[in-house]
Amino acid sequence: MARLRDPDGGCPWDLEQDFASIAPYTIEEAYEVADAIDRGDLPALKDELGDLLLQVVFHARMAEEQGAFAFGEVVAAICDKMVRRHPHVFGGARIDDAQAQTANWEQIKRAERAAAGDADSSALAGISRGLPEWQRAVKLQDRAARTGFDWPGPAPVIDKLHEEIDEVRAEFAGVAAAPDDAAAQARLQDEIGDLLFVAANLARHARVDVGAALRGANLKFERRFRRMESLAQADGRRLEDLPLDAQEAYWARVKREGG
Predict the structure, then answer these.
(1) What's the mean pLDDT when you consider all of the chain?
(2) CB 1 within 8 A of CB 22
């Protein structure tokens, strides 16, 4: 990476990059790691982990060029953090179970934030704003639940989901009545946000990973839609040329096939 970033003979593209321009690639590579894991493809996982590691190296090299830190310091920092956050492994502390470990982990993180001068003492402190919003929603809900602020089970969450759907339906009607009203559109967006937030909470109560569930739904939709295209092509038709009822007939056929 030092060679690629060398102004004298390095790669023009690499030389143009900065932290902000590389960040989207870092996120993309993390998702590709998750995809390889989801597919159970270990050779692909090896490659994707290498790609993700390259992102760490890239950021570290840019920081080193600015005199901030180098790759070795990144490694040392995470090693120090793991030792500090596992006193029951590397020290004399005793942790009885995973639940106690989670509580102790959070206590150590709060102490770290305080030592760094972070005055935010909220139970929600330290949740990154850079997370995908569905993931941040679950983390916010989980943190609040640790204080006791949580529904007792999935049933009231499902009731709330129905309530939010009714509110979304009402705001859709409001937008239909006044399509140029920016305030009506904003209210609809707000209600859809509430609906998604409650859906994430339902997944949390079910102990279902929202990202994994949505990935599964995406894959299922893609598989079924591609099969629809194949069936239409076999009939000498193009899916995009068909009316909706004919398309839905293909969709029903795919579902009957177990697709």
Answers:
(1) 92
(2) no
